[in-house]
Write a structure and sequence with these properties.
Distance between the termini: 36 Å
Helix content: 25-40%
Number of domains: 1
Number of strands: 3
Largest sheet: 3 strands, antiparallel
Strand order of the largest sheet: 1-2-3
Order of helices and strands: HEEEHH
Structural class: alpha+beta
Shape: elongated
Number of helices: 3
């Protein structure tokens, strides 16, 4: 694991998974928010990650169908996402 994984900030999908595995954490689905999160203890503090993946991305796309007045969704950053989101976009 390199220094890009340490400290606060946004992380790639792969990095988030590596950090959670290193911390021995399991991903937990928040149904109301439509997102996964995890946490683990490091020394006397806890590290937290909220992760976007294909399931959470699909939930956002479903909101577009549910609320026809919405004209789109916002994505924090592209290029470090779960590769499984691209087939979802191709379907819609």
């Amino acid at each position: 694991m390199d220094a890009r994984h340490d400290g606060p900030g946004s992380r790639s999908f792969q990095c988030a998974n590596e950090l959670a595995a290193r911390g021995g954490a399991e991903w937990i689905w928040l149904p109301e928010q439509g997102v996964y999160y995890t946490f683990w203890q490091r020394n006397v503090t806890f590290d937290w990650i909220f992760r976007e993946d294909a399931r959470s991305f699909a939930r956002k796309l479903d909101l577009l169908a549910e609320y026809p007045g919405l004209h789109g969704i916002s994505v924090w950053v592209l290029g470090s996402e779960d590769p499984a989101i691209w087939p979802l976009l191709a379907e819609r």
